[in-house]
Structures are given as structure tokens and as C-alpha cells.
Predict the structure.
Amino acid sequence: MSVYCNISSTHCYIVILMSFILLVMANTAEVMAKKTSYNNEKIIILDPGHGGHDKGVQSMNGTYEKTLSLKLANIIAKKLKDKYRVFLTRTDDYWLDIPSRIDAANHLKANLFISIHFGGSFLHKTSGICIYYYKEISRSANILENETLKTIKSNNIQTQWHKIQNRHKTTSHILAESVKNRINEHIEFTKCKVQGAPVIVLSGADMPAVIIEAGYISNPTDENKLKDTKFLSDFAKSISKGIEDFFKTHKN
């Protein structure tokens, strides 16, 4: 900064010093305002399933679940970024274990954790969208035979987070219903349902958390729709609207 002064040097220095102080105060006020706004924003963790050597479900045409889950998560993040702080557990094709995914959400004290997956079945006509929230059951459930959920179970979950999701079971269920309602408004090729299951990737999340299984890529018809960028954009929009609906009714 250059300052021209035509008065005494002492006075000039005082003017320069006061100008500098005022500038610092203005910048500090601006930073504090931004910090306050930053701290007040909701934090959403999007968790693209699989990655790296863990390809997840693979379609007959060679579409990998790990690729499609990352693509959909990125589109959802773009839809949400103007209103919320959005983080992805992975941003490229690499593998993360389950504790790392959960730790990221818990250490950031996120408001929501949403894991993105796709279904697969030996029966190629199998179709559907399902949103899972964590729910313990005493008997073995048929739902756990689903190929996608098999790949996200783990015995290595950190004990400090184990089953902490139980305290958020009700709000996680409400979140799942909010997203389901929006999906069913805009996605016509199949209906979305909500189901509770003892899914390990959700059990340690200390905030409302769901898994969205966004269709079956083993179904050729569903796969073609899910590979279409515009369709994925519409899908992401409906998920985003469901999240906004949830926050409108749950301020904390």
C-alpha cells in the first residue's frame, strides 16, 4: 500500500498507522462474519460406496457400482453445496475401510451421513430403490442376503462408535422417509421403499444416517437409466429435496 502525505512526518505516520488498524479491523470483522456463517451451516457427509479394488456390484455391460456411486455422490454434492457444507468420504477411485468412513463423519460432527450404493442380483429382472436406516434385529433377515449389503458388512468397526446409531434411529427413519417421498415424486421407473436393517456402515455414525441403494445395475433397463447423466441429475435433485425437507422439520 502506498500513502501520499503532505503534512509532518510524525502526523503522516499516525495517519498511516490508523489506516492500517482500520483495515485490519475491517478484515477481521469480515473473517469473523464468514466464520460465523461457516459454523452455522449444516454438514453433510456423502459416502460413495466401494472404491479401488472393491468394485461392488458389476453389471453384464461392465458398469461398476463403485464408479456409479461416486458419480451420483458428486452430482448430489453440487446440488447441495450452495446451502450446506458437503464432504465426500472419497473423491476418486480408491478404497476406504468402514471405520475411516464413519470417523470422517463423526470427527467433523456432521449433521447427516448418507452412503450411496446400487443393488445387484442374479435375477436380472430384480428392480427397485431402497433406503436403509439402522435397526437391530434379533433374527437373521433376508435383506442381509442382498449382494450390496454383503459387501459393506465388516467385523473391524471401531468399538468407540459401535451401535451409537441407536440413539439416532428415529431421526434416521424420518430422514429415509423424507428422501423416499421426494424420490417417488420424481422417479417413475420404480418405487422407492424404506427398510430398517443392522447395517454395520451405519451403526457407528453419531448423526442421522441412511444408505440409499439407488436401483439395480444388474437390471439392464435400470442400468441404462442410471448411466444417463440427466436421469442421475434428476435423481440427485430428488435426494437433495428430501434432505432439505428433513432439515426444515429438524432444525437441530
Q: What stands out?
A: The chain has a mean pLDDT of 79. The helical segments are 9-40, 65-80, 98-107, 147-151, 169-186, 200-203, 220-226, 229-249. Residues 41-249 form a domain with the Aminopeptidase fold (CATH 3.40.630.40).
